[in-house]
Design a protein that fits this description.
Layout: H1 10-19, E1 31-32, H2 35-42, H3 52-56, E2 59-65, E3 73-81, E4 86-91, E5 99-102, H4 105-119, E6 124-130, H5 137-147, E7 160-165, E8 168-173, E9 184-190, H6 193-210
Antiparallel strand pairs: 1-2, 2-3, 3-4, 4-5, 6-9, 7-8, 8-9
Helix pairs in contact: 5-6
C-alpha cells in the first residue's frame, strides 16, 4: 500500500494474501507477479527501473517482465476501477507507451490460464475472429454458447469471455483501444475436429439469430 496513494483493489489484496509469494501452477513464464519482485523493482534492485511518472499518473506495477527483447510490465491503472478490481495495462519504462489489455486483473488471470491449461494443450485447436456492425458480439454469442452446453466459469465484462464444456474451451477477447469495438478474437481447443466445427459454427448462428 505504501507504493501508491490510491487504495488497493480488493481483488489485489486477496491475490497478495494467497499468491503474493508464489502462483504455483499459474506462474507466468516471463512475468513475475510476486510481492518480493514488485518491491525490488520499486527499490531499484531490478534490471529495469521504474519511472516515477508511472506512480504520478496513478499506475501501480503488479507484474515485472523479464523479456530481454520487449519487457512489457503489467500495471494497474488505479484511476479506472471496477468495484473489486482495476484496469490492467502493459507497457515498458515510459507511461506514454501504456496500452490497456484487460478490464480487470482477475479476468487476465482466468483468461490467460484457461488458454494455457484448457485450449492450447488440446489435441485440436483453431483461432479466428467475429464481428458485426449491428450487434455487440457477446450479447449474441452468450445464449448460443449456453445452447451448445458451454458455461462461463467466471463472469466477465464486455471485452473478455471464457466458455467451457467438458470436451472444449473457448477464450475470446476484444481490444480495449481499437476503433473496431465490436470485434472479438477467439482461440478454441477441443478433443476432436467435430467438436471444433460445432463450436466454431456458434458465431455464424449468433449472427443469423440477431440480424
Amino acid at each position: 500500500q505504501a507504493l501508491t496513494p490510491h487504495p488497493l483493489p480488493p481483488f489485489y489484496v486477496w491475490f497478495l494474501r494467497r499468491m503474493g509469494r508464489s502462483m504455483g501452477a499459474m506462474t507466468y513464464s516471463l512475468a513475475d507477479f510476486s510481492a518480493q519482485t514488485i518491491l525490488a523493482a520499486y527499490a531499484g534492485q531490478e534490471e529495469y527501473p521504474i519511472d516515477s511518472a508511472w506512480t504520478d499518473a496513478g499506475y501501480l506495477m503488479i507484474g515485472y517482465n523479464r523479456d530481454d527483447m520487449m519487457p512489457l510490465h503489467r500495471w494497474y491503472d488505479l484511476n479506472q476501477r471496477t468495484p473489486d478490481d482495476a484496469l490492467v495495462v502493459h507497457g515498458d519504462a515510459t507511461v506514454a507507451g501504456a496500452t490497456p489489455s484487460f478490464s480487470a486483473f482477475a479476468e487476465m488471470l482466468v483468461w490467460g490460464k484457461a488458454g494455457t491449461f484448457r485450449v492450447y494443450n488440446r489435441s485440436q485447436a483453431c483461432s479466428g475472429s467475429f464481428t458485426d456492425d449491428a450487434y455487440e458480439p457477446f450479447v449474441c454469442l452468450d445464449p448460443v454458447m449456453v445452447q451448445l452446453g458451454f458455461h462461463q466459469p467466471v463472469a466477465m465484462r464486455d471485452r473478455c469471455r471464457v466458455y467451457e464444456r467438458e470436451d472444449a474451451t473457448m477464450i475470446c477477447k476484444g481490444s480495449l483501444t481499437s476503433d473496431r469495438r465490436k470485434s472479438r478474437f477467439y482461440d478454441l481447443g477441443a478433443t476432436d475436429e467435430a467438436t471444433i466445427r460445432a463450436a466454431s459454427w456458434a458465431r455464424s448462428r449468433a449472427r443469423r439469430a440477431f440480424s
